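Notebook entry, structure prediction.
Reason for the run: the old model in the group folder had no record of what sequence produced it. Starting over properly, with the input documented here first.
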Amino acid sequence: MERTDLPLIAEGKTKIVYANPEDESTVYLCFKDDITAGDGAKRDVFPGKAAIDWSISRDCFEYLQRKGIRTHYVASPSEKWTLVRRLHQKIELEVVSRRVATGSMLRWADVEEGDRFEPVVTRFHYKHDPLHDPMLDNRYVDHLIADKKAWEYAAMREMNEAILSVLEHAFSHFGMQLVDIKLEYGIINGEVHLIDEISGGSFRLWPYRKASPDLQQANVLDQLAPEQRLDKDTYRLGESADAVLSKFAAIAAITAGFKDL
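New structure, fully documented this time:
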């Protein structure tokens, strides 16, 4: 489905949004080969990435919908193309849930790499690259929910943590730990829905270091193998295009098995 005649709605860093002339309640998302990091400061084009991202996202969305998670996903009519429901409102926030401490959290929180969170830690970030996606104060989010009846924040927090849990369980069947996940949301018919994509740039994924790890410890770093990570940190750390694509392809091979779970 390589359609170039569809009306263009918007183009982002990794996807293009096209109108669906046959159904105004839906739009098409076309994945791009672009990869970015550092709030867009680092950017490259890796041929083949779009098809890999598309397959991971398709597998994750279809699995989540089978588990009862509300999403905008409708279908994947062909490689790199996804049909989704049109939003009534996009929420300009990124929601990050963390099971294991790593990444930027080590610089702004009093934690050690590998600290395990139970329950998971969830934070909201303004989706704004020039301002480096600043994080909302969690006490203020609690205030919005309690005093301003900001049901959207409560719904996003609950959904994000449920999604992490569902996908964490799925990846565990393949000897992988879902470390954290960053997702986006929108409003459709008055309800919060998961939107956008889920791909190697949406989460951190570390293999188990041994067959039966003890993941109930306060710190699980010695149970996992972050040096064998399969996520976009490989790109952030400067690995080659071939290495990054190989690791993203390994994720796709795993998520292809979600249909059997």
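Summary: The chain has two domains: 8-85, 89-250.
The old model has been moved to the deprecated folder.
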